[in-house]
Amino acid sequence: MRALSASSSESARAAGEKYAVPLTFSSAEELARCEEVDLVVVTVRVPQHLELIRPAIEAGKMVFSEWPLGADLAQAEELAARAHRRGLLTAVGLQARSAPPLRYLRDLVAEGYAGRVLSTSMLGSGGGWGATYDDSHAYLLDVRSGATLLSIPFGHSVDALTMVLGEFREVSARIENLRPEVTHVTSGAVAAKSAEDQIAVQVGGHGRDALPRRNVPCYRVSLGDQRHGGRSRRQGRSGSVVVGASAAVRRPGKRRHVD
Question: Which of 23, 96, 137, 246 is 20 to 30 A (C-alpha) from 224?
Fold first, then answer.
């Protein structure tokens, strides 16, 4: 890593010293103009993606961004179009595709381990959009931030599902905000929440014909209790494959496993 940028020159210098990065900048524009930078990596909160990625693209730099790319579809389309016009190589981080258990599951399905897949179900749980919040995660409450249950955990999980089984043909979905008010974990202050906390999705088939159109794999995310982790089951004519996580995957010290 040759350079980094932060919100101030002081914080940039401190980070540079800590991580032995030789070049530090106080703005994304300065970093993007640096001739020693070939690839700009954006690893900050979603609401800031547009203002950080845009100058990198305009400077003709390749970009790797955390998922999701933008706070909404319009931002993502704008950034993708700008990169396309410049002919730039870009990538968005969907790290589930690199998880060994999921790559193993993809291979099992492709090899016909359980026969033709008849149905698939996924269930997830977590705490980011539950009954309480803290100062560092208050921005998650506002659906306009783009950092939502739908865009982040669901986006990562459904990408993993399509990696294993192929793209969806038909989709029926419902999202709900069942906790419009949440409580601060220490002060007890009540805040409004506009972001969804429940998602249910049914799909009619997958692009690689892993599933017949008439069957309905489903995905559901329920937030507020991380103890249950996540679970996915694929039922085939010759058996079934189950993938589970003992707790929400973003918690340290936990692991995914294949049964």
Answer: 96
Q: Is the dihedral of CA 27, 32, 33, 39 positive or negative?
A: positive
CATH 3.30.360.10 residue spans of the chain: 96-258
Domain 96-258: which topology? Dihydrodipicolinate Reductase; domain 2 (3.30.360)
What dihedral do alpha carbons 193, 231, 99, 107 form, nearest 10°?
-140
pLDDT of 95 above 60: yes
Could you report the per-residue pLDDT of 30-45, keeping only the tens digit for each?
Answer: 999 999 999 999 999 9
Contact 197, 176 (CB under 8 A): yes
pLDDT tier at 221 (50, 70, 90 boundaries)? low
As annotated, the residues of the chain forming the CATH 3.40.50.720 domain(s) are: 3-95
Strand pairing category for 190-192 and 181-184: antiparallel
Q: Are strands 171-176 and 198-203 parallel, antiparallel or unpaired?
A: antiparallel
Q: Kindly report which listed range (32-36, 63-67, 111-115, 238-242) carries the lowest average pLDDT score.
A: 238-242
